[in-house]
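CHAIN AND CONFORMATION:
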Amino acid sequence: AAARRETAAAAVSDGGGGARSRDGVSLGRRLGYLPRQLDEVELDHGRRVAPSNGAAVVDDDDDARVVALTRHMRQLPKLELHAHLNGCVRDSTLLDRAEAVSRAAEDDATEDAPAREEEAEEEEAGEDENDRTGANKTPKPPPKPTAPRPHRKTADVRALLAKPDGKGRPLQRCFDLFAAIHDLCTDHDSLRRIAAEATMDFARDGVVYLELRTTPKCVPSRNVTKASYCAAVLDGLALGKKLADDWRRSKRRAGGDDDEGGTRGSSDASSNSSSFESFAICARLILSVDRRETPEEAVKTVKLAAFLRDAGADVCGVDLSGNPALGHWKSFEPALRLARHLKLPVTLHCGEIEGTGTEEAAMIAFEPDRFGHCVHTSRDPERWLALRRSEIPIEICVSSNCVTDSVPRDESCDGSHASRARRHHVGQAHAVGHPLCICTDDPGVFETTLSREYALVAVAFDLSDDDVRELVTGTVRHAFMTDAHDDPFAERAMRVKRRVMRGAANWRGFPGGRRASARRRAIGGVASRLMRRIREVGSALTTSLSRSNSPVSSEKGIRYADDDDDDDDDDYERTAFGLLASALVGGGVAAAACRLCVKL
């Protein structure tokens, strides 16, 4: 894989000379991995944006705002933490694969026809030589094993990709589309292409950090093993990053065009050149354990993830996904505990369907690093309270939950996407300050982008510019990257964080958004840091006071030298609690005073 990446990089830098070869276009055209133009994506499920003035040709005002804000959201550097590889397949790529499989099947049939005729003639000659009783009949050789090919015709795939109502695909058609993707795209060449195209599409949408997840598959008929599957995907991620980086450089050389298709002046381009980060996107891989797998296969996937991470590959975690109606949590828990023992971050799909309350409670008790969806978890008061107390971040996928009917319809829904999104639990989580991150889940199948998801949430819940900034910058804390010295990804993680923070601070916002002034944002940031610092000092002071006396062993456990009776213990605990409460109250008052000064 490393040799192939070096070869691809050399081909980009030396293939033909000139700026055109250096920007990755020549190699991309040869491989068919060209960045998808965003104006060709139906971001609003069938309603296109007018190319002249950027206005949306829609009847509903909320959906029109979603389409209009999507372009402005592309200018914001974002992080994608929940996206499935097979869900990122382009329609054109799937059609190409169907046509290639059909041509291969026809070629095989043409090549095998003479051989079958020769075998038939030999069989007839052997029957003539045998006697009538058949005692000396020549035995037939066993049939040669043939690799099963997917029975997917191009016309059938084209019918699956069609939208009957012109707006979106029905739920059952989405499931059928996933089955077609599994049939047509589980080979090394397809995996490399899908991963490269997905990386470029996310970079084109303004995503600077991507965690792409997939389940390693073993298909002996196509010479695909779990290890070779992961190698092909990692190869595609590396190629996609290279092409996206070269595309970004070519856009800068072209005259200051920004990443999202808008044009900045030359002064803006020159002023931002000093803070420019050379990379377009940083893509990493999460290995998923499918609920259809056996516990033994789950353990193999976890060990493979640890091996690839230790070998220097961009593997950053483990996921549990698949049909939530299949499998049992208890059978996968040992493999996920092994992942935790191997210091692999864990994320779990949770609460996607009804009737899994016991499993959801067990998952919350497991305390993974992140949760996916949690649609039905948020509707149960007891489980929602447990989730809030755990403060485990939730990967929110609004369009995915709406299309798959996880978010129910009612009479108040007027049919628009924003109206349907208002019933999503993202508003409930955001209102109470629970950590969350906006994601796409399956952008290719559900026809969305991360910018559209942010625009949809902003319109549905009337978020301000600062609210969107906080969502983006908060996602940095939930990504599977650290700045530890022993982490080889630490340097890139710091670059990603700087890129996101600078981009969020310089983001111009969206029209009509309640954007705060630069001075107000700066003072608000100082107030937040001050409150956080006061809380840290108060906690440290309380801890130091509670541990000021040397511990003494006793039959009742660890006690302190001046712990003579229970009354002293109670007084001491009340004192420590009072100090902590005072620190927290003082921090809140300081923050409130700063915010009041800002408003005045």
